[in-house]
Structure formats: structure tokens, C-alpha cells
Amino acid sequence: MLALTLPVVAEQSVFELHIKDHLFQPSVLYVPAGEKMKLLVFNQDPSPEEFESFSLNREKVILGKGKATLFIGPLEPGKYEFFGEYNPDSAQGVLIALPEQEWLQHKAKHAD
Amino acid sequence: MKLYSKKAVIKALCFVCLGSSTLALADGRVVDKVYHPYVQPLERSFEYRYFYQRQADHPDNNAMGQKLGYGFSVAERAALEIYAIADRVSPEDYKLSGYELELRWMLTEQGQYSADWGMLFELERQNNQDNYEFTTGLLMEKEFGPTSLTLNALAVYEWGKTLDPEWESEFRAQYRYRWLPAVQPAIELYAGENYKGAGPSLMGVHKFDRQEQLKWELAVIVAIDNQTVDRTLRFALEYEF
């Protein structure tokens, strides 16, 4: 098994998601495709929430007023929907993985 | 950009085949759940498992077993599950054969390293024979794009009134295609004392409401050596709430 699990030594981009009033903020999150990244999820509500996404293959409970770290990617370019399992009607969002050129343009646009 | 390599998948499958051919296995039932290395806080579940194995002229012919469990997380990364076990070996009827206490411990966050790791600890008491079995080992899962490879490498220590104390080893593997939440086909491989088997499986999850979901698994495992009972059916239901 150890042969399959050589450590990953790469600097990871960090992105943040907040949960407030059972909503994800932002509900649309742009990230670069082809990179491993860290997603910090802050739950500002007093009740727990579960970040869940079948397409990302991630499921993580975040306790009330708590924080969770998810390790995601590398992703193919595309859309990856996620939702809060405790409040699926309101807590919904999408993560959009952009190809390199589009990601650089997106970063430049939002750096202004 | 290719995000996972075919070479890595082939390497992993070769490892699985190699592992299954070199490990010795256990007296108990080898075909069972392939454990994933993940634990969620606030996790609670009822679980039902069933197996049936059949082959004419085999000493382990026509045996059935059922397990009923209740599990809950005891920490952010640890979960306990308690089971009652009933077995039936034809022509006898079902009898409550034992109890089991299981602890799963998530060692790494999913995706943090190139593979995800956990540990399993199980203590089983066979109450009709006053025998015990302690199992521990590593649980590993690795993503290859839309597929996941899960490996369980377990060490088993048996002792009791009708058992000579001994260490044995078990190996379980599952290679799963995450096609749809409700339908995820896989292949499974098991190796243990006097047992080597492999076969197709199908699993999925259905969500009912907030925090309520039903996971299901079905597998048909066939012998890959002459000592193994030829056909084993494995079925499991897990209600999480």
C-alpha cells in the first residue's frame, strides 16, 4: 500500500467558503483546474452543516461555529455542484474549475 | 491535462493481485465489508449485513450469516459500532453466535495526501464456543479520476476454548466506479486463510431527507483457487441518520 502513497509536495492554493443563514457564500466559487487545492469552510451558523458533493467525491461535517479543511483536486475543467446536507434546499453552490488561461484572466480581472 | 494515469491504476491492480497471492488467511469469514477510511462527526447508523455461501461437496457448504449493528461517532475522527452476529450452518437453524465491537479511526483527511488512511480495530466474541477474535489493520483509499481503489490489510488474532491462539492475515480490495450516487459498480477481491475469491459488486446511496440516507451493497464472490467455497453472496444495508 505504501508504494501507492508517496507524499505530495506541492504548494496548494487556498480558497474559502462561508456558511451563513444556511447559505454558502460565495455560492459560485472559481478555482484553477489541474491543481490540488485547500478549501476552508467556515460555518458561521450555530448549527452543524455537511458539505457534500458527489462529483467532487467529498463529504464533510462542519460543526456549528466551526471550521473544516477539505483537500480537493486536481480537477478537470468543469462544474462541480455541492450542497449542505442539513439544509439542502437553501445551502447549494457550484465550484467551477477553469482551464489555465481562463483562470489567469479571472484572477487578473478580480485583482483590479 | 491528464489528471490520473492509467499506469497508476495498472500498478495498483498489480499490487492487489500480488498481495492476494502472498498473504495467508483466517479461519473466520473472509468475505465481508470492504472498509473505507473515513469517519464523520455526528455520524449515526444502523447496519445490516448478510452473506450466503454454497458449493456442493465443500466442508463450508451452505452457510449463512447475518449481522446487525448500531454505530456512532465518538470523536471527530473515530466511530464505534456494536454488532450482534447470527450464523446458520445447514441443517442447523440460525443461532446468535456472537457479538462484535468495532472502532474505525480516520488518520488523514480525504485528499490531504496521495492516498487516504484509516485504521480498524475489532473484537469479536463467539459466545457459543467462548472464542475470541481481535482484528486490526490499515484501511486505504485512493482516487483515480472517477474511480476509487480501497484496500484493507488486516491482522487477525484468534484464541479461545476451541481455538489454538494464532495470528492470521486478511486482505480485501475494492475498485469502484463512482458512476451515479445510486449505482456504483465495483470489483472486489478477498484473500484469507483457506480463501481466495473475487467478483463483481454493486453499491449506491439513496438520500431520503436531511441527514437521512440508505447505503446498499451487493456482491457475488467466486473462488479463484480450489480450496475456496465457490460462490458467496454478500449484501449490506446501512441507514445513516
Short descriptors:
heterodimer, A: 112 residues, mainly beta, Immunoglobulin-like, four-stranded mixed beta sheet, 1 helix, B: mainly beta, Porin, twelve-stranded antiparallel beta barrel, 61% strand
Tell me roughly what share of residues is in helical segments of chain B.
under 10%
Q: How would a crystallographer describe the biggest sheet of chain B? A: 12 strands, antiparallel, barrel
Element-level helix/strand string of chain A: EEEEEEEEEH
How far the N terminus sits from the C terminus of chain A, by CA atoms, comes to 47 Å
Number of strands of chain B: 12
Using only C-alpha atoms, the radius of gyration of chain A works out to 15 Å
Name the helicity range of chain A.
10-25%
| Structural classification of chain A | mainly beta
Q: Class of chain B in CATH?
A: Mainly Beta
> What is the count of DSSP helices of chain A, taking H or I runs of 4+ residues?
1
Which chains have the largest interface? A-B, 31 and 32 residues
Total of helices of chain B: 1
Query: What is the CATH H-level superfamily of chain B?
Result: monomeric porin ompg
Global outline of chain A: globular
**CATH homologous superfamily name of chain A?**
Cupredoxins -  blue copper proteins
Q: How many domain modules of chain B?
A: 1
Count of structural domains of chain A: 1
Instruction: Give average pLDDT of chain A, whole number.
Output: 91
Shape of chain B: globular
Uncertain stretches of 5 or more adjacent residues of chain B: 12-27
List the quaternary state of the chains. Answer: heterodimer
